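This section describes the prediction task in plain terms. A model, or a person checking by hand, is given the sequence of a single protein chain and must write out its three-dimensional structure as a string of tokens. No templates, partner chains or ligands are provided. The sample shown here is typical of the held-out split.
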Amino acid sequence: MKHSNVNILLLVILFLVQGIHIVNGQNSKNDAGMLLKVENFQKNINGKNVNLYFLKNDNINMAITNYGARIVSLCVPDKYGKMADVVIGFKSIDDYLKATGVYHGAIIGRVAGRINNGKIKIDDSTYSLQLNAGTSHLHGGSYGFHNQVWNVKSNNDTSLVLTYLSKDGEMGYPGNVNVDVTYILNSKRELIIDYKATTDESTPLNLTNHAFFNLAGEGSGSIYNHLLTINANYICPIDEAKIAIAKNYKVKATPFDFRKEKAIGKDLIFENDNQQLKLAGGYDHHFIIIRNKKNEMIVAASVIEPNSGRKMEVLTQEPCLHFFSANFFKGADIGKMGKPINYRESFALETQCYPYSSDSKLFPTIILNPTDKYETKTIFRFSIVE
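The expected answer:
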């Protein structure tokens, strides 16, 4: 009997030791039941070490890699208390490196979106950026912020601060830009992304996070039944090259009207008839957020997945929200859950400035000057609806 008690005690101690080992991140298992192994993210890329970092607060937990400052995993409960990973991602750094979809969960910079012909004009100087999307420069170029190894400034259970120095001439941009991005999980079931940047030379800057969401959980199928609300009266229409050309396209009586809650898939049946849906291959547009004051933190959008009851609100200080309905995924990449990442099985809601334009009469400028400080926040707030 004494031997049995000793054996039980040894098993308990072993279990506790293994639990500590897991919490410290050597083999961290998130609440969705999916195993993310730190060693699968430990790699040296261009002389810098990549790793995986875990945050947890209340009943939300997430994983972030410093490769591209990416959200790898974000697990939240449904109305029954069941956890699911609502961000699309991969189980290893090698999967990210070989993926056909290169922006999953990443910080995008220097400039989110497309720049026509890759030309930017600052005062009397014109700069040529890399063309990585036909005749356009897209999301900072092929070696933009999403494809860089960020430095870890600080890390604790609920926050991670990442920094990156974008050197003068990177992808054709002028000036040295220092960027700080802080991920915070608070006790209000909120994920806060705090952006800060400075430059030593005038340069355009428009940062965002490019997480793809499915509130039913990664690999759960179509997002068509997700109920979306966007606080916008106008979008920025695009041309054949997907370049934003104006800011006066009214959403009223069009498929872009999400002022009242509507299923994402409801009006996609008109994508062969509506010119803007046709040009973009679905939703891939800037929505201009209704606000009373500049830099005011307001709810720009909300999404509900009816079966799980998960609700996500997107709060931002930015003037625009880019809604993308994952129109181009073809199942070539395999996500964390071992399932293909398919067409319209996720969505992105990217908080950002107006698109870049050298014409200040078309869109407000996004030029950051050496005397300026770039500071903005985005909040993803999670809750449950019955």
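For orientation: The longest helix spans residues 2-23.
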